[in-house]
Amino acid sequence: MKSTLTFAVVPKLPPRLEPLRELAYNLWWCWTPEASVLFREIDPELWVAVHHNPVKLLRNVSQARLIAASENENFVQRSEQLAQRLKDYKNKPDRWFQKTYGNQAQDFQVAYFSAEFGVHEALPIYSGGLGILAGDHCKSASDLGLPFIACGLMYRVGYFKQRINKDGWQESESVLWDFSELPVSEVLAPNSSIPLKVRVELPGRSVTVKVWAATVGLIKIYLLDTDVEENSADDRRITRQLYGGDHEMRIKQEIVLGIGGVRALHAVGHTPKVFHMNEGHAAFLGLERIRMLHKNSNLNFHEALQVVASSSIFTTHTPVAAGNDAFSLDLLRTYFGEFVRELGITFDELLRIGRPWEGKDSDPFSMTILGLRLSRYANGVSALHGDVSREMWQCVWPNVPTHEIPITSITNGIHTQTWMCPEFRVLLEKYMGAVWEDNVQDEEVWKKVYTIPDEEIWDTHQKRKAKLIERVRHRVQRQRLREEESPQSISDAQKLLNPNVLTVGFARRFATYKRATLLLKHLDRLKAMLGNTERPIQFVFAGKAHPADEPGKRFLQQVYKASDTPELRNKIIFVEDYDIDLARYLVSGVDVWLNTPTRPLEASGTSGEKCPPNGGVNCSILDGWWCEGYNGKNGYAINPDIIASNPATQDEFDANALYTIIEQEIIPRYYERDERGLPRKWIAVMKESMATISPKFSTFRMVQEYAGRLYMPAFQGNGRIRENNFASARELAQWKQEIRNQWNAVKVVSVGWNPTQPQFQVGEEFTVEARISLGSLAPGNVAVEAYVAETTGKKLHIAAPLTLVTDEGNGVYLYKGIVKTLESGSYWFNVRIIPFHPSLTQKHELRLITWAGRTELDNAQVNQMREVAHV
Fold first, then answer.
1. Per-residue pLDDT tens for 791-832?
2. Which superfamily does 475-696 belong to?
3. Among 62, 210, 291, 655, which is 20 to 30 Å from 697 by CA?
4. Does the bond joining 801 to the residue before it have cis omega, within 30 degrees of 0?
5. pLDDT of residue 1
6. What does residue 727 show for φ and ψ, rounded to 5 degrees?
């Protein structure tokens, strides 16, 4: 008989286990090891089968096991204690934000938008580093007590599961998630029992968006879902898969995230004062905020833009062009042709805020440029990435010196409690105390690592390595069973890796710039290294290539095939389907974490930051965060001095440097043992890594920086611009328009300076005079500066203010100022005029700048200044 109806039966939670319900739905449990242990005890095999998802566990476990647990007094007591710990965590009164800002932050709230969130494998809405960072950002925002909410998309499929076939080629497997089994809840409409839904307009129709929420400690991540019955089949697929589909699917996803996200937060009842865009995927939120102000507060587009930009933060994460979304003009016209009318501007005006300042008609609409133009605060994710970003996006600020481009940097970190394994957590608390919620970033506390006996550090690390090996063996055996390899090969999987052998890990996205194949550059040298039986070494690889990244998939195939050659088999292991679960084992079990990107294309990288709290040591190209983390004693820097213009040459240099470091430094130090069998010198590097990297590269420190350097200034500036019915916004927008209209009349008439000698000694001064013409502008509308820069463009830059001395009439003014020499070197100088208004957040907010032309300077003086040698 054919069935026509289906239904599900779920177990009933005994009253004594009711505390487990709240624990399961608050992802606080995922950085509380005792909670994971508690859930695992209910049914250890099922816990693994449900990917460590307590919600799915409680929906699928047998009633008998729940009853047995409820009759176990010890289990019940621990569940009650954990529930009380969660309650205490939520009610903690003296968190960092409240102690630091107190009454300064009335009505303060940050809304953080990201296309992915990697909180835990139980919530599979992430693909890699961007999502992991977002998840860790949320966790630390909760720990610190930051008034904070987040917004993303609720993917029905999420990112793909990876399968490697016999040829070493990556295959993608989609898994359809049942939201009722995930740690999320439906958001209900205010004062209603009906699920909350908002609507977003797409060409010719309105799309319904359902709102879910994940709870992460004290905060909510609101997740948007178009897979609802009100929508067409095509529109239901918008939130089906993370980074799936073509450019048209991507623009629809980003409209739902940015525009739908703003509407969802307002529908819930939130009125965040600060908006943080984590990459360009969410940049459309700025347009929606402008539309709402235009409609509800009677502000024109440019007035509303002042309000929105003053409270917006934009974080760029990649210096790789392909990582910055851009849409064709036809696609943008299709999806925003009507929307611009609601903004009160033309389509051409919209194009201008998403393209280079001096762009071409063929330029696409860049989401990164849109994010930068709609934000007064922007940052890269490491100091080096800040430098790279200022150069990369100088097209948004033409004629502005690179170092003055208003993109700062805040280096990424990790949520230490999440990524530190339980064994090291117990060990460190024994010697350091429980520091995790209050002073993770305290370098003095971390110095206590040096007092931990070497034996205890080493034994703890070896335990974690054994667990890593067990996990790798299980995964590889499962893969070989699926691929129907020989019985011998399947059995041999249980012999993979040796806990007494130096183990190096490489796990990350298989993008070509990350150079996973660099280790394979000279196979003869690698085989000799791996064939050394006295001082052996073994490598574990993992990672996914984007399904559309064919070169990345070929890199992965090269690694996999190399690992299957007779000389390298069982010495290089590739573990498929890299995820948060496998990452936890890798970062806490390997001896060395290897990172080989092409400098400077690794914006930050956080995988290597996860090893030090677990006793791991980094060996990396000096790129991203490692430029700031490496101190010469806490790990290894690959080829720090040689930068070649030719990629193949750089690969050759870096590969040889990598082999040399492994052969001459890492292997000898690891295998140098004392009479007790302890590698004392290696353990010293482990301790240095733990003590110097762990406190600095945490999201505890990172979120504090965001709060102090970006969030609070944005909040305070936005408060000022909203006063008196947006009077400042209206006045500023009008002033900017007047400046733009009259700027063509602004010029430097002449520049003079009178050195008494052709060179200066450090500390000496010289006077600069400039006659400028402002047309009908008053002097109060501009700043005049003598700009001094080293001829190499890399060291010293000075913008010395010139002061108004005389009004010569007819719009011409004489300015004078003093330039003081600070360091030896060869310099040039020029005079410039830029707009000035006390309400400007950025010095170059208008992107208008007038320099003195070469013809306006005395040629002899110019040549003399360019060749000045200071002694």
1. 776 666 788 899 999 999 999 999 999 988 878 777 888 899
2. Glycogen Phosphorylase B; (3.40.50.2000)
3. 655
4. no
5. 55
6. -60, -40
| pLDDT at position 794 | 61
Which residue from 227, 253, 267 is spatially nearest to 335, judged by alpha carbons? 253
Q: Residues 6 or more apart from 335 whose CB is under 8 A from it?
A: 202, 203, 251, 252, 255
Distance CA 20, CA 467 (A): 27
**pLDDT given for residue 380 in this prediction:** 97
CA distance 144 to 701: 10
Fold of 746-866: Immunoglobulin-like (2.60.40)
- Residue 31, pLDDT score: 95
pLDDT of 392: 93
Mean pLDDT of 260-280: 97
Rounded to the nearest 10°, the torsion over CA 600, 604, 607, 610 is 130
- Residue 862: predicted pLDDT: 37
Average pLDDT of the chain to the nearest whole number: 92
3-state SS class at 471: helix
Spatial distance between the Cα atoms of 335 and 325, rounded to a whole number of angstroms: 16
The C-alpha atoms of residue 351 and residue 333 are separated, in whole angstroms, by 9
Measured N-to-C along each axis, helices 647-661 and 523-530 cross at an angle, to the nearest 10 degrees, of: 20
Of 369, 359, 404, the C-alpha closest to 386 is: 404
Residue 295 and residue 299: Cα distance in Å, rounded?
8
The tokens describing 634, both together, are 């806490």
Short-list 432, 463, 440, 412, CA closest to 31: 440
Mean pLDDT, rounded, for 345-372: 92
Q: Give residue 9's pLDDT.
A: 75
**What pLDDT digit, counting tens, does each position of 561-599 carry?**
999 898 898 899 999 999 999 999 999 999 999 999 999
538 burial via Cβ count (<10 Å: 0-12, 13-18, 19+) = buried
Mind spelling out the 3-state secondary structure of 168-213? Answer: CCEEEECCCCCHHHCCCEECECCCCCCECEEEEEECCEEEEEEEEE
Q: Answer yes or no: are the C-beta atoms of 143 and 700 closer than 8 Å.
A: yes
Q: Provide the 3-class DSSP secondary structure of residue 348.
A: helix
Residues 702, 697: Cα–Cα separation, whole Å: 8
What's the order of all strands across the beta sheet hosting 635-638? Answer: 572-575, 537-542, 502-507, 592-595, 617-621, 635-638
The DSSP bridge pattern shows strands 312-315 and 377-380 to be parallel
For β-strands 782-790 and 797-809, DSSP reports them as antiparallel
Cα separation, 151 vs 111, whole angstroms:
7
The DSSP symbol for 164 reads E
Show Cβ contacts of residue 565 under 8 Å, excluding neighbours closer than 6 positions.
none
Widest pairwise Cα distance in the chain: 106
The token pair that represents 9 in the structure block: 């039966």
CB 457 within 8 A of CB 482: no
DSSP secondary structure code for residue 716 in this structure: H
Q: Which of 76-90, 489-503, 847-861 has the lowest mean pLDDT?
A: 847-861
Alpha helices in 522-579 (DSSP H): 523-530, 550-563
> Phi and psi at residue 448, in whole multiples of 5°?
-65, -15
Domain regions of the chain by residue span: 15-91, 475-696, 746-866
Which SS3 state, helix, strand or coil, does residue 826 take? coil
**Residues 621-634: tens digit of each pLDDT:** 999 999 999 999 99
Which amino acid type is present at position 77? Answer: Q
Indicate the burial class of 301 (C-beta count within 10 angstroms; 0-12, 13-18, 19 or more).
buried
Using CB atoms within 10 A of its CB, is residue 729 exposed (0-12), middle (13-18) or buried (19+)?
buried
Q: How confident is the model over 402-415, as pLDDT tens digits?
A: 999 999 999 999 99
CB 243 within 8 A of CB 196: no
Terminal CA-to-CA distance of the chain, rounded, Å?
98
In degrees, rounded to 5, the angle at the alpha carbon of residue 850 between the alpha carbons of residues 846 and 853 is 160
